[in-house]
Each structure stands twice: as structure tokens, then as C-alpha cells.
Design goal:
Elements lengths: L1 H11 L7 E6 L4 E6 L5 H5 L4 H16 L4 E6 L1
Parallel strand pairs: 2-3
Antiparallel strand pairs: 1-2
Length: about 80
Amino acid sequence: MKELVEVIAKALVEHPDQVSVTETEGEDGIVLELRVAQEDMVKVIGRQGRIAKAIRSVVKAASTKADCRVTLEIME
């Protein structure tokens, strides 16, 4: 899952070298924390959160296929 989020985020931003994804075990499953450069935050979130919602949908679909629960958090 971590690699999937990294590939998607790096394709969206202008500074792909500053994209980092941290994977941690939470109470409800795996938590992925996505961090990007401050000026790229708008490109990852999108208007009214549409891009962020789309990324979360892809992660949810992949996690359902892998039979685990994954949550994506976009960090500042």
C-alpha cells in the first residue's frame, strides 16, 4: 500500500523528492501518513478534497483486495 500511495503522490506534485509515506500499525489496521512539500499540498488535496478522496478510494479498493484495513492521512 505504501508504494501505491507514493507512486500516486509523486505523479501529482512538482517536488517528488519531498514525498514521504510512513506506515504504522494502528488499532483499526494500517495507517499511512502522506507528507508532501507545503506548496504541493493543494495538488494532493485538490478542490474540495476531490483528489484526496480519489486517492483514499484507490487505497480502500486495494486494501479490500488484500483483506486488510488501511487509512490514509495527509499530514502538513
